[in-house]
Design goal:
Order of helices and strands: EEEEEEEEEEEHHEEHHHHHHH
CATH superfamily of the largest domain: Jelly Rolls
Strand order of the largest sheet: 2-1-3-10-5-8-11-12
Oligomer: single chain
Shape: globular
Number of strands: 13
CATH topology of the largest domain: Jelly Rolls
Structural class: alpha+beta
Number of helices: 9
Largest sheet: 8 strands, antiparallel
CATH class of the largest domain: Mainly Beta
Length: 292
């Protein structure tokens, strides 16, 4: 069931009309109704809601809305699933989902996030999903907006705050926290198995045999569908999972074991190569709002 959504000091439990997902990135025909909290029904260009997750809450099901949605991770991590893959951000990161893009959102245990809904006509953000780091000032403005009435006066202090937020959103820096998954059935099959067992170390040749393709053909397919070589694609999944685990308090040693690395130093070297920092420094910089 969806998480309760806090608007100001009131809690609402939005009803859901949704079917069962066959695959985590297959949202065909599914939609969530947020009833009184439907962001498309709020006649303001930008609104912000607080969302909390309890341990026994499920993932917010696949849904879509006209307004774009920026999900800011305040505590824990946020995962967003879309047709083209997974995006995960730690605390002080954000996932951007343009309007009408089917998606599902989940928080780590006891996580807390803020959802900012923006009219597509005024959005300064891209027309495709992306992950970003959030500056301390922007983070506090978003948090403050969530404590104000969603139907604020069209002119006045809140409207001016909204304009500053939009200006700051235009300055956000993108981060490479995306595991691309196309709609090709073989890519989806491999991705699903890697997600289920991220420590899987099968070679490209072994994967090719498993999906009834030649090694060369599979290598070309993965590169075409994801923009990455097979090895780089699998490492990208490891980075995405590692960021989520780090934000939940897992140790580097535990993460390296979960992902099948021979040692914590081997995992750290891979992470540093692609993210520019060792894992703990990466997470600390985002917690302090000093991301490069």
């Amino acid at each position: 069931m969806p998480k309760s959504v806090r608007v100001g000091a009131e809690w609402q439990n939005p009803p859901v009309t949704v079917g069962t997902l066959a695959m985590p990135w297959d949202p065909t025909g599914l939609r969530v109704s947020f009833a009184a909290l439907d962001p498309d029904e709020l006649a303001r260009p930008v609104v912000s809601f607080l969302v909390r997750r309890n341990v026994d809450d499920d993932e917010l099901p696949i849904h879509r809305h006209r307004k774009g949605q920026l999900v800011v991770a305040a505590e824990g991590s946020v995962m967003c699933r879309t047709l083209d893959g997974l995006r995960i951000v730690p605390s002080n990161g954000a996932v951007w989902i343009p309007g009408e893009v089917p998606h599902s959102v989940s928080l780590s245990d006891k996580g807390r996030s803020y959802c900012v809904f923006i009219n597509p006509e005024i959005s300064p953000l891209p027309n495709s999903c992306a992950t970003f780091s959030i500056s301390p000032m922007l983070r506090e403005m978003i948090f403050h907006l969530a404590n104000l009435p969603p139907l604020y006066p069209p002119e006045g202090p809140t409207s001016r705050l909204v304009q500053v937020i939009l200006d700051e959103l235009a300055q956000m820096k993108a981060e490479p926290l995306h595991f691309p998954v196309s709609n090709h059935p073989r890519i989806q099959r491999i991705a699903a198995q890697l997600l289920d067992a991220p420590d899987d170390r099968k070679t490209l040749r072994e994967w090719a045999a498993a999906v009834a393709m030649s090694e060369r053909t599979l290598a070309r397919l993965i590169l075409k569908q994801t923009g990455m070589s097979f090895g780089r694609w699998r490492q990208q999944l490891h980075i995405v999972i590692a960021v989520q685990r780090l934000s939940m308090g897992a140790t580097v040693q535990a993460i390296s074991q979960e992902l099948g690395y021979d040692s914590p130093s081997a995992f750290t070297a891979m992470f540093r190569k692609h993210m520019g920092q060792p894992p703990r420094r990466y997470l600390q910089d985002r917690a302090e709002g000093t991301a490069n």
